[in-house]
Amino acid sequence: QVQLVESGGGVVQPGRSLRLSCVVSGFTFSSYGIHWVRQAPGKGLEWVALIWYGNSDDYYADSVKGRFIISRDNSKNTVYLEMNTLRAEDTAVYYCARVLGTYMDVWGKGTTVIVSS
Amino acid sequence: AIQLTQSPSSLSASVGDRVTITCRASQGIASALAWYQQKPGNAPKLLIYDASNLQSGVPSRFSGSGSDKDFTLTISSLQPEDFATYYCQQFDSYPVAFGQGTRLDIK
To answer: Residue B92, exposed/middle/buried by CB under 10 A (0-12, 13-18, 19+)?
Structure first.
């Protein structure tokens, strides 16, 4: 079945870096875009980034632009989110989700990132 | 950037009630709106896409309507499993945006 599994979360100090992974299965990965969406504790959903299939065009929320980089490796069915210069406000559960049209039809269970000294 | 405003922010209702949640966009987005349900500790689940299309496997008591700036999610007869938080989301233009959420509690 269609599945997305996030990993790579953990506790990291402010200013440091962390790389999240989203491994997909059950569909032709190279034909789909993938979003990252985050949710701070007790807060709503916040879109973070998107990478398209094909030319791998990428887009970012203003809050992470210049600090986060989204990439994909079609040979590994994996999307990455490289997070640099982390701040306390980046603390959240990070979800990856498959793009279908204008919406997100399948989501992973999420990985937790805590930025704290 | 397009902003989405949901109302109400929270709502108390009883099993069997009809409930409507609204989502207003700061500019027109045609029908590029989706609705998600999220229960505590779980990932969001797609309910409605393109404003009014029911995602496969979602009960028919859920429905969506609207276009341009004003959208609604309706639950025709609340069931115990429907108590959750609901989000609208637009992808008419970048950046992708979510509404702030509507928490639906048991009265």
So the answer is: middle
Identify which of A111, A16, A19, A116 has the alpha carbon closest to the alpha carbon of residue A72. Answer: A19
Question: For strand B102-106 and strand B10-13, is the pairing parallel, antiparallel, or unpaired?
Answer: parallel
Confidence of residue A55 (pLDDT cuts 50, 70, 90): confident
Position B13 pLDDT exceeds 90? yes
The mean pLDDT value for A39-61 works out to 95
Q: What is the CA radius of gyration of chain A?
A: 13
B32 in reach of chain A (CB within 8 A): yes
pLDDT digits (tens, 9 = 90+) for B69-88: 999 999 999 999 999 999 99
Out of A44, A101, A104, the one facing B100 most closely (by C-beta) is A44
Q: Which string of DSSP letters, residue by residue, matches A46-106?
A: EEEEEE-STT--EEE-TTTTTTEEEEEEGGGTEEEEEE-S--GGG-EEEEEEEEETTEEEE
Report residue B107's pLDDT band, with 50, 70 and 90 as the boundaries.
confident
Could you give the 3-state DSSP secondary structure of residue A15?
coil
Distance in Å, alpha carbon of B80 to nearest chain A alpha carbon: 22
B54 part of contact set with chain A, CB < 8 Å: no
Contact list in B for residue A59 (CB cut-off 8 A) is: 94-96
